[in-house]
Amino acid sequence: EPSASVTTVTDAWLRCTARAIHERRLWLTDLDAAIGDGDHGINLDRGFSAVLGDLETGAIPTDGVAELMTSAGRRLLGLVGGASGALYGRALMTAGTRLAERAGDEEISRRTLVEIALAGAIDGITALGRAVPGDKTMLDALSPALAALRAAPPDAPERDAMLAMAEAAEAGATATIPLVARKGRASYLGERSAGHLDPGAASSAILIRCLADAVIASDGQSMPPRMPSAQP
């Protein structure tokens, strides 16, 4: 029996993400400066800091996970500039919609809910950005994370499934380094985009690590945070 509700875990995930993005905002911005507009970390930090502020002041409804995700997504959509705001905002809102569809299912496991939310986020991003894995985008972290979660044995401990998901996201982000970007601002550079870690994949890996951490920590366990290996 989970020791914390899905809504509580989601709240903890958003708070972890806001802290982690703030701590790594300059690193993410440096990554983006190499192949993009140079504002990824700063923009995401502004958005997630606003979400954190909303959580602390009670401006975001926390009586249900779907409402929480959708409200956070709307906040990012309205505040974060560039493609990242639209993509992350749509990701959270689509995840919230998918979770709302399963709101009455009391038999569903937290692991399955994470899978539903992550699949919804990927669908939202894909519908908006028209990218596929291998295009050097956030999907290169998110898609392997979902695949790893689905590949974990059904009877595997929840912690093991979450760790596999986080590690797959980080490995996927690191694997963008040699890729040539085919979508987004980096695609304008063509072959010159190779040799750089994709900032969107890097920030996505941070979100997935925080998600795993929030689920694991909710049961009184802990794990050391580990970010993509390309981070200094």
Task: Spell out the blueprint of helices and strands.
Elements: H1 6-23, H2 25-35, H3 40-57, H4 65-79, H5 82-101, H6 110-129, H7 139-151, H8 158-174, H9 199-217
Helix pairs in contact: 1-3, 1-4, 1-9, 2-3, 2-9, 3-4, 4-5, 5-6, 6-7, 7-8, 7-9, 8-9
Task: Outline the structure in words.
The protein has 232 residues and is an all-alpha fold. 65% of the residues lie in helices and 0% in strands. The protein contains nine helices and no strands. Helix 2 packs antiparallel against helix 3, helix 2 runs antiparallel to helix 9 and helix 6 packs antiparallel against helix 7. The N and C termini lie far apart (39 Å).
How many E strands?
0
Q: How far is the N terminus from the C terminus? A: 39 Å
- Indicate the structural class: mainly alpha
Radius of gyration: 16 Å
Instruction: Give the overall pLDDT as a whole number.
Output: 90
Describe the main β-sheet briefly.
none
Secondary-structure element order, N to C? HHHHHHHHH
**What is the helix fraction of residues, given as a range?**
55-70%
Q: Specify the overall morphology.
A: globular
Q: Low-confidence parts, pLDDT < 50 over ≥5 residues?
A: 227-232
Annotation field: number of helices: 9
Indicate the proportion of strand residues.
Answer: under 5%
